[in-house]
Amino acid sequence: MFLGVTASVMNWDADGTCCSILLEDNPLVDFVELPDTCQGLYYCNILSGVIRGALEMVAMKTEVTWIRDMLRGDDAYELQVKLLKQVPEEYPYKDDE
């Protein structure tokens, strides 16, 4: 939303713990070309960290990995989000005191 990117959530697994996020556009790569010597580089890896960090703020431990990246010759930008565990909320103080 903050980058002005439209995304679609798809490919849910049977457990409902893993899905793919398909990005229609990626403004981080507008003026980027990876040379042949850097084809192993995931240039937009910051997006996976942003998604993982946002989900940690709502008590979800996740693993976010790139599946497809147009900078590497694929036909789309696709991230896989896998829920590892939900962290129970802990309150630092008691309400009844």
UniProtKB/TrEMBL annotation:
InterPro entries per record: Bet3, NO_sig/Golgi_transp_ligand-bd, TRAPP_component
Q: Does the keyword Endoplasmic reticulum apply?
A: yes
SUPFAM superfamilies, per database record? Ligand-binding domain in the NO signalling and Golgi transport
What family name appears in the similarity comment?
Belongs to the TRAPP small subunits family. BET3 subfamily.
Keyword Endoplasmic reticulum set for record: yes
A Pfam family assignment: TRAPP
Compartments reported by the entry: Endoplasmic reticulum; Golgi apparatus, cis-Golgi network
Name assigned to this protein: Trafficking protein particle complex subunit
- Superkingdom of this entry's organism? Eukaryota
Provide this UniProt record's keywords sorted from A to Z.
Endoplasmic reticulum, ER-Golgi transport, Golgi apparatus, Transport
